[in-house]
Amino acid sequence: MEKYQVAEIVKKQRELFMSGQTLDLETRMVYLKKLKTVLIKYEKEMMEAVRKDMGRADVETYFMETHMNLEELDYTLKHLKEWAKPQKVKTPTLFFMSESNLLPEPYGVTLIISAWNFPILQTIGPMIGAIAAGNTCILKPAGDSPACGAIVHKIISEVFPPEYVITIEGGSDKTTLFLEEKLDYIFFTGSPRVGKIIMAAAAKNLVPVTLELGGKSPAIIDESADVDQAAKRIMWSKLFNTGQICVTVDHCYVHKKIKEEFVAACKKYILQFYGEDASQSKDYGFIINDKNFDRIVGYLDEGNILYGGQYNKASRYIQPTLIDGLTEESKIMQDEIFGPVLPILTFENIDELIANQKRKEKPLALYFFSKKEDAKQKIVRLTSAGGVTINDCMAHGGTSFLPFGGVGNSGMGSYHGYKTFETFSHLKAVMEAPTAHILDLPVKYPPYKDKLKKLKTMEKFHIL
Question: Is 246 a catalytic residue?
């Protein structure tokens, strides 16, 4: 793809946006309803594409790619008319009888860049809000998931004309070309490293961004927790999509008293989920590429392997693995793992653990397993993360009723449900004043002689 082709795509989308066609609420809803029909139509092909790219189980694909997008569509269609209305707000007395409103307006031409691990969800999910808000969209699925990129292209081409929404397949070189254009909004899902590149590129044209990044999301299990249930839910999260998910458990802190019980329960559920040989399970996938495979295998040299540790480069298979004997300085504790390897560290004092966590980069998620109400409140109040789930994993990211996003190193901005619509909307402040001269307060006009005292009196009695 050449630079002039990229410029032409942006030009055509801007022309459509400037024509005002995307502002029509009924038009937006017609296209979103058509998108729902086409997503259902290609459900099987989406599952096949994901299995080809990363071997993910169909149930996981249905839950994360099909179901979540359909749920987002239904929620958006149900509430869009209300969201799009001007929001009336109060007006100060100084502007007596004026009316104040917040009017949601679209930014214009938006670029949505997704990661390779959930390329259908992370491309179409934000797009739903962008279209609902009245924007046009350039979609850039990750090049490392080519089959998924192809099915996204197929779906989008069947629903939208390219001047409204277009899918750009291929590598990151194409993303770079679009970042050089003057866009109106950029939504990026990926790593903090690439997020900094995106933000730097956007800064050149003062383009607003949402960055959905990752980080080392911990699970903390205290001595009061239901250990068996905690292990079951943590291993489900850790091995979902073979651990290649930004919101999964990266590592565990387990109270020293229950460590052995926890490890035994984790082993039990690995076997229950995937059998003696996970490589033969249809429910267990493979690592996306050689680069990530080699990176994850490199972590296996550290600590003590409690379970697993086997791998096969030809099939990019890494066995579900539990490791202990690590410190905070270990290499595996510095990087986001993004694979099926779970470091298990112990703690005795929750206050010391919280203090240690506060010294680290803020994670995308934090999980806490406990039956103690005071401990739950302490974790919620004293730690910072994009989101927190108590006694489960990833649940806060699977609902349209809660915003999903990071903080600090794990991202900025959020989406899901109304928040996606809001993210892709500028809330324009609109005030309309009355034209009757009698409603003009004389105190606001020069000459100001003796008016300061009147203003202060009005302020004292809360008239202003």
Answer: yes
